[in-house]
């Protein structure tokens, strides 16, 4: 067991070499030789064939070359590993002990190598995105068919998280691109308390979004919660959780707005769908994405409250790192740069502005 632990602790494979090395140690005043993984594979071949000639053929090396490598392994181990007096040849107890550990080590290394190659191949065949949850269910189903001809059969992966979490995955190299909402003044890059890493990266605008203050309707089809200014008026307000970048955008709009009634924040949710459900129930007013509420507006279930100046206009942007990406990811980026296509808002955007006409 001590030999196994020592071998597992010291073996490593230098880049570009088929070699496992141990730093030289002093044994009886002499430094040991460097361990070559081929020697362990040679020992396994001798144990399998129990014949040096057949083992040399199996290892594609001359018998004299095999013998020299086995001798080097014995020098490294400090013990005889083969009983050459016997025919067929046998391993000594030390050889059997080393072989058991060697088989385990070689098996683990080969498994790691396969996993690393599979991960590399998977990354090379994939295009990986990180995006807030809302975009993964509203924007990507519209956008991906437009770029399908460019990416072909490429495997697509979308990691859904809040914007800081998307940026963490981006920084770690776990994704190729971040797709997110951003205001035209780029204030969202630092609205969450710290500057996001994507603020220094290349980006393209690939879509639009608009957050509209919406309310359920009363019996006269007017807003149940009216944002019209008035003395001592208080309106129930449904807001986004602090980690949600949509909430950062709304907070900036409210900070700039004037002549609003007092907003009484009675409910929070990190998901726009959650706020939409509460708005439909009549609980309060919320700034909701037009892409998820246009059918509610057309059917008269939700109506604008307040003036169009209270809308929050957002771009949908794709950010890329400075490093070189996989060929397929680079092909996608080149296509986006060349076409500059943008997924626009639903045509009812104009109708929203007429909501209170």
From TrEMBL:
Signal peptide: none annotated. It comes from the Bacteria. Keywords: DNA-binding, Transcription, Transcription regulation. Pfam families: HTH_1 (PF00126), LysR_substrate (PF03466). The keyword Transcription applies. Residues 1-21 are annotated as: Disordered. PROSITE patterns: HTH_LYSR. InterPro entries: LysR_HTH_N, LysR_subst-bd, WH-like_DNA-bd_sf, WH_DNA-bd_sf. Residues 35-92 form the HTH lysR-type domain. GO terms for molecular function: DNA-binding transcription factor activity; transcription cis-regulatory region binding. NodD regulates the expression of the nodABCFE genes which encode other nodulation proteins. NodD is also a negative regulator of its own expression. Binds flavonoids as inducers. Belongs to the LysR transcriptional regulatory family. This is HTH lysR-type domain-containing protein.
């Amino acid at each position: 067991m001590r030999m196994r632990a020592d071998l597992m602790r010291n073996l490593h494979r230098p880049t570009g070499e088929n070699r496992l090395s141990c730093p030289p140690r002093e044994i009886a005043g002499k430094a040991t030789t460097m361990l070559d993984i081929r020697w362990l594979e040679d020992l396994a071949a001798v144990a399998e064939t129990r014949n040096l000639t057949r083992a040399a053929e199996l290892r594609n090396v001359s018998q004299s070359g095999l013998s020299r490598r086995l001798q080097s392994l014995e020098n490294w181990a400090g013990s005889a590993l083969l009983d050459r007096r016997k025919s067929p040849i046998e391993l000594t107890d030390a050889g059997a002990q080393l072989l058991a550990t060697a088989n385990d080590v070689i098996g683990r290394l080969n498994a790691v190598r396969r996993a690393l190659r599979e991960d590399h191949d998977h990354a090379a065949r994939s295009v990986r995105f990180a995006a807030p949850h809302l975009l993964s269910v509203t924007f990507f189903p519209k956008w991906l068919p437009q770029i399908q001809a460019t990416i072909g059969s490429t495997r697509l992966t979308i990691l859904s998280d809040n914007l800081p979490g998307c940026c963490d995955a981006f920084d770690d190299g776990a994704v190729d691109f971040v797709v997110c909402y951003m205001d035209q003044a780029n204030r969202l890059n630092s609205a969450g308390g710290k500057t996001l890493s994507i603020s220094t990266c290349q980006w393209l605008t690939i879509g639009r979004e608009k957050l509209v203050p919406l309310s359920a309707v009363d019996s006269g089809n007017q807003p149940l919660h009216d944002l019209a200014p008035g003395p001592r008026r208080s309106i129930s307000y449904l807001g986004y959780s602090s980690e949600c970048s949509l909430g950062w955008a709304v907070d900036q709009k409210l900070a700039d707005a004037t002549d609003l009634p007092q907003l009484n924040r009675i409910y929070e949710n990190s998901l726009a769908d959650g706020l939409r459900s509460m708005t439909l129930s009549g609980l309060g007013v919320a700034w909701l994405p037009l892409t998820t509420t246009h059918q509610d507006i057309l059917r008269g279930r939700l109506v604008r409250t307040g003036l169009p100046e209270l809308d929050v206009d957002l771009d949908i942007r794709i950010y890329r790192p400075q490093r070189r990406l996989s060929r397929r990811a680079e092909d996608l980026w080149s296509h986006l740069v060349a076409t500059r296509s943008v997924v626009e808002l639903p045509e009812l955007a104009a109708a929203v502005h007429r909501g209170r006409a």
